[in-house]
Every structure is written in C-alpha cells, then in structure tokens.
Amino acid sequence: MDRIRWYLRSDAGENRENLKIVTHPEYHCPSEPDICKDAIGQYLKGMHEVELGLAKAISTILGHEETYIAKEFKLEAGFDMAILNLYPPSLQSKGSIGLAEHTDPGFFVSLIQNVNGGLQMLSHKGNWITVHIPRNTIFIGIGDHLEILTNGKYKSHIHQVILNNNKVKRISMATLHGPSLDTFVAPTPEFIDESHPPNYRGMTYKKSLKFNGFDEIDVQSSLFQFRMLLSL
Ligand SMILES: O=C(O)CCC(=O)C(=O)O
Ligand SMILES: [Fe+2]
Fold first, then answer.
1. What is the pTM for the complete model shown?
2. What positions does the domain Fe2OG dioxygenase occupy (predicted)?
3. Probe residue for ligand 1, chosen from 133, 156, 161, 217 as the CB with the greatest number of ligand atoms within 8 Å
4. Is residue 88 very low, low, confident or very high in pLDDT (cuts 50, 70, 90)?
5. Ligand 1 first shell, C-beta below 6 A
6. What ipTM describes this predicted complex?
C-alpha cells in the first residue's frame, strides 16, 4: 500500500490538489521540506492527545467506562490519515465545487484551514450550512465508524467544500482518526434492542476502507453500502 499519495483534480466535480499521508501508527511525510515534516509531526502528536481525551469524554457521555472507545477502536494502533487540500481561487477553477459531498470514515475528523469559508455541512432539514471556523481553531467532526459503533446515535456528518468566490487559495488539513485496521466495527449490544435493531453490518476497518474497490489510503466512505446491504 502507498503511504503517501498526491493528486490534482480540476473538473466540474472536484477542484483541488491533494496530498494524503498515513500518519499513525507510523508517521509518513515527504522528507522535504524539513519544516513541513516537523510541523505536521508536532501537530499530530498533540492531536493524538486530543483523540484520547475525546474518546474518554464520549465514552463517559455514552455511560461507559472512560476506556470504552479507546478499547473498541484499538486507538493505540489507530489508522490515521492526514489529508492536505489546496483549493484554487474560484476564478481558476472548473466549477464551484472544491470537494463533492461525502462523509469521512473513522472515529472523528479534525480540520484546520488557512482562510475561513468553503466548508459546508448538510443539516438534518436538508440545507447546506456554511461552517464558520474561527482563527486558530480546530474543527472536529464525527466519522462513519462512531455512527456504526453507536448504531446511529451519533451521526457522521455529510459535508462538501465549495469555492465560494474565493480570491485566494484555501488550504486545509483534515486528519481522519480511525480504529486500527484490524478492528471489527459493528453496532455494540448496548445500542441494540427491540425498538433499535442493528442498522449497520459489521466489518474490519480495513475491509470497510477497501469496500468500494479503493485502497486504504483513499479513505473513502462506504457507510452508504453498510446501510444498503441491510435492506437487501
Ligand atoms: O477542506 C475542507 O474543509 C474539508 C476537507 C474534507 O472534507 C476532506 O478532506 O475529507
Ligand atoms: Fe471530509
């Protein structure tokens, strides 16, 4: 499997330059420039602490022991990916979509950006809401596998990026914090009863990432397929 991947897309469905790197359990980063490797490494080290803190907090909110999510997702060996995005100014793009609507696999996603504006989330009423992320703030969103684990109690958010008449390039870094690749994720018994039958089938994180024929590093969601398969 590739540990670092780069691509550029410029068409009606997507306008972005994109670098994906596997950052945990082993940290991979292009060696040049040094500052990039060190800065991203430092940031991710801090984010790992945030991840463990969030896992404790959500476990407690769900009425479990603090270690519940860290154990269920085997976070010590969690598969994390950093996705570095560069969106062109809207005048240089081939349409208004930076990144088409999707959800992100994993436990949660953290996001930082250089300029505000562009990220939108779909509300439960079906409206696109612009996400305002104040300066020096880390945005946290829920991933598919927290939705699966909790049988839909927590929802993975549908989001997209629009170019929004951007005058300057927008740079963002999304990090997908996932379970370990061998973790079998399924709705846990605590979230299942007669009025809440399991809504998702279970499978390992690795299999779910490859489910639609992608490679692990593509980190494409397969949540839709998880739900579809149940109704077959
Ligand atoms: O650039 C953004 O604001 C979001 C990026 C994103 O959703 C992704 O890379 O999965
Ligand atoms: Fe995303």
1. 0.94
2. 78-179
3. 161
4. very high
5. 83, 85, 99, 104, 111, 113, 118-119, 159, 161, 172, 174
6. 0.99
